[in-house]
Design a protein that fits this description.
alpha/beta; Rossmann fold; transcription; 4-stranded antiparallel sheet; 412 residues; 14 helices; 6-stranded mixed sheet
């Protein structure tokens, strides 16, 4: 991070109520239209930063740093509740500050606290940013630790052994994990049915082993009063195997409109959700792109090389009963005919069972029918493609929140 980090300059302007100006190629403008943010220096001059300049404040949920425009937007709208702040930020094309960071970040920017654990900056840079004198000379960039020699370690071994002989070990790290019940019966049962060399490893599919199960002692009831015989496995410990396609059945499902007039279709949904760029459907069709019946969206995750998978379709004609349980998002064009052959009767009922979204250009008004449905409106700018990333990021946050709240069995 630069020694003149915009985080501390912004904090100084917020505390002392100094003016902050925004500029683009045409001159002074609003933050939503700006490309640069201008601050006033103590000497009377000015300093400008690009609005997407990363600051020294790291996000709690990832290793990324907040851009300057997100912090300026928070400072200017800190009186709003988080829901309104989120809505206004998306409308302005600004990635909002996470709910986890908003309280501590506001306290730092307003001067209520002097530091925060999420601020990542070198000590010398921090002193300069806070107006303190820096050191006369730079510290070495690489520090070689002074490890003790092997001879010094060996000299201490007798003393260490003498101390250990006088100690009485009462427990260790693994003692709380050890139970007191005898689980030998369960271990034996699992070894017979699931372990290597067990009876299921050698029994052909479709044939049931006639080997009796392990003994099981329980209080007899009228429905379980019969004694287990050697020719039939005991019903007290049934073998339950997950279906082979269980992982495939846990991939979330998304539906987009089949209408060519929709902003989001099977042609451009992969570019929008995966590459975070909106490309008009007509452009892709003119390039000769073919429409697929099903797409797989790979959503990259920070710190995890394995992406999250989502299936996308535009029709429910081939839906199985289990597919409705995987449905997490529906993009609508505001027309009731879009929902023919659906499991539920009308759009209002549909959006009580699944999360709904309506994609429109930011300068358009939503349809009257959409305003009566429980759907979230996604605003896409006609020309400013740099805003797409913030819009898609907010969309994925909404999908994650819906899955965690209503369908946790689909969560990664």
């Amino acid at each position: 991070m630069s020694q003149q980090d915009p985080l501390f300059i912004l904090r100084d302007h917020v505390i002392h109520d100094k003016p902050i100006k925004f500029f683009n190629a045409d001159g002074e403008c609003k933050l939503a239209e700006a490309t640069h943010v201008e601050f006033t220096q103590p000497s009377g001059g000015t300093v400008r930063f690009a609005r997407d300049t990363p600051t020294a404040y790291k996000k709690s949920s990832s290793s990324e740093f907040y851009p300057l425009d997100s912090l300026v937007f928070l400072a200017q709208n800190r009186s709003l509740v988080y829901g309104s702040l989120l809505k206004e930020g998306v409308a302005a094309g600004i990635s909002p500050v996470s709910y986890l960071d908003i309280k501590h970040l506001t306290e730092f920017l307003t001067g209520a606290v002097d530091t925060n654990e999420n601020i990542v900056i070198s000590k010398s840079a921090k002193r300069l940013a806070m107006g303190e004198p820096g050191p006369l000379a730079k510290a070495p960039r690489h520090h070689t630790p002074n490890y003790p020699s092997i001879e010094a370690v060996q000299e201490d071994l007798p003393a260490v052994k003498a101390i250990q002989e006088c100690e009485r070990e009462l427990g260790n790290l693994y003692d709380p994990l050890r139970g007191t019940k005898d689980m030998s019966v369960i271990r034996k049962y699992c070894q017979q049915h699931f372990g290597k060399g067990g009876q299921n490893a050698h029994t052909p599919s479709g044939q049931r082993s006639q080997r009796p199960g392990p003994p099981y002692v329980s209080t007899p009831t009228p429905s379980r009063s019969r004694q287990a015989t050697p020719s039939k496995p005991s019903p007290s410990l049934p073998v339950r195997r997950p279906p082979p396609s269980k992982r495939a059945n846990r991939i979330p499902l998304i539906i987009v409109p089949a209408a060519a007039t929709s902003l989001l279709t099977m042609y451009n949904v992969k570019d929008f959700l995966e590459n975070q760029t909106f490309v008009p459907t007509q452009v892709l069709r003119e390039q000769g792109m073919r429409k697929e019946s099903q797409l797989t969206i790979e959503r990259a995750r920070i710190g995890n090389p394995k992406p999250l998978l989502y299936h996308v379709v535009d029709s429910v004609d081939r839906f199985k009963p289990d597919d409705w349980d995987r449905l997490v998002a529906v993009f609508t064009i505001g027309a009731p005919w879009q929902f023919k052959k659906w499991k539920w009767e009308n759009p209002r009922e549909i959006f009580t069972h699944v999360k709904g979204y309506y994609v429109k250009f930011s300068d358009e008004q939503p349809k009257d029918a959409v305003q009566q449905w429980d759907v979230e409106i996604i605003n896409v700018d006609r020309t400013k493609r740099h805003k797409d990333k913030a819009v898609v990021s907010q969309l994925w946050d909404s999908v994650d929140h819906y899955i965690a709240r209503t369908k946790p069995y689909l969560a990664p």
